[in-house]
Amino acid sequence: MTSMLLVLSLLIHLITLTAFYQLFKQVQILKQGRSDDVTKLMETYLKEIKEENRLLETTLSQAETSVEPDTKAAADKTDSSAYTPATDHVADDSKLSLEAKVLQLYDRGLEIENIARQLNCGKTEAELIIKFNKKAHNNA
């Protein structure tokens, strides 16, 4: 009788250990899946940032080529001793910075995707401007 109970106890212990081992394996698989998801998310963000940087570089290189003739013409004008700036009428040609435009549109209730599309900037760039502004106001 005692040997029968001993065998039964051994079988129950083996089944319990097997169950614990299977649960452990499943937890490990879930942890691996979550880390893979985070890795994929970070890779996606990285690709977006690289694409935005590439677009920015293209825009800047195009702007540099179009500005060079204008700067030469301006240099020619400043070299001339007969040039006097007009002071009768000074127009306010100031423009809002990209940061100010993003924050202004965000305050109006536009979503980040629409702001980026309207201002022709990257979604991540607009999102970072908003986050940094919130952080600056929270720290102040």
Automatic annotation (TrEMBL):
Region span, Disordered: 59-87
One Pfam family of this chain: DUF6115
Entry-linked InterPro entries: DUF6115 (IPR046118)
Source domain of life: Bacteria
Compositionally biased region (Basic and acidic residues): 69-79
Protein name (record): Swarming motility protein SwrB
Annotated organism of origin: Lentibacillus persicus
